[in-house]
Amino acid sequence: KELESLNLYGSTVTVANVAELKKLSQLKKLFLFQTDFAEGDSLADLQAALPDCEVVAANQSEGDGSAESES
Q: E strands within 9-59?
């Protein structure tokens, strides 16, 4: 299997799933936008297990986040 890119947009990604994702050592890009996967330690663990993979995990709502809110 030569899967190089995986997009899990909008999926439920649990800590248990991380073990399975770690097995995908050939991945080059992993997109975790708008997933339930927001655990900082698990994300760092996943990135360490997949050093050649760019893990993109932005679990914010639309926009740049809530740091700057005007209204």
A: 29-31, 54-56
List strands edge to edge, sheet with 54-56: 5-7, 29-31, 54-56
Q: Which residues contact 65 (CB under 8 A, 6 or more apart)?
A: none
Higher pLDDT, 65 or 45: 45
| pTM for this model (two decimals) | 0.72
**Nearest Cα residue to 3 out of 20, 18, 19, 25:** 25
Tokens linked to 59: 């679990």
Identity at 34, one-letter amino acid code: Q
pLDDT at 59: 57
